[in-house]
Amino acid sequence: MISIVDVIKSRRSIRKYLDKPIPKETIDKLIDAAKWAPSGMNEQPWGFIVVQDKALIKELSDCSIPYINKMIEENPKFIRYKKRMKVKDFNIFYHAPCVIIILGRVDVFFYQNDCAMAAQNLMLTASSMGIGSCWVGMMSTLDKDKWFREKFQLPDNYRVVAPIALGYFENKDIPVVERRPPEILKYF
Ligand SMILES: Cc1cc2nc3c(=O)[nH]c(=O)nc-3n(C[C@H](O)[C@H](O)[C@H](O)COP(=O)(O)O)c2cc1C
After folding, report:
1. CA of 188 to the centre of ligand 1 (A)
2. Ligand 1 mean position to 14 CA, how many Å?
3. Full DSSP string of 51-92
């Protein structure tokens, strides 16, 4: 059995997916794993939207792009995304067959932390099952968009925290991403 540390270390953000749907039972397992995340005062302030409709995933991507471009223009930090956005028919979810958006209830103090914990549970579980994932933070720019909120019938008190692209992938598509040594500020 593969150890949790091996799963943590072998998970990579996948940006190229096979055109193969994820079965509903598998998606249910991923969401079940997500819900076992710790949360402040056990509030569990998360909600999940599962999108497998290809046309809708494309629409989500297309609608996000003007917001992302605006974000890039307004913040020089994001300038390196500019080139990526110019790719013809760029799909922010990299044509993944499934997108799970984790939203959090804003009335809960730690909702962003809680939902991020759920997202990591989901991505690690996916990785342990041979399913690739990528947290597509750029999609959060769509959070206040009228079309998006109406289309997905989002309650006013939910905000997008973790949009996650998911899908099967080929082993050769695993990028190498190194880590810096951890900055130990101080040992006492
Ligand atoms: C909060 C957050 C937002 C991210 N947003 C994006 C994104 O919009 N697009 C993307 O391709 N990757 C995104 N990523 C993935 C990171 O680029 C990736 O985790 C990082 O480069 C390390 O690579 P690894 O996940 O393969 O270890 C995001 C990751 C996190 C945690």
Report:
1. 32
2. 9
3. E--HHHHHHHHHHHHHHHHHHHHH-GGGTTHHHHHHSTT--T
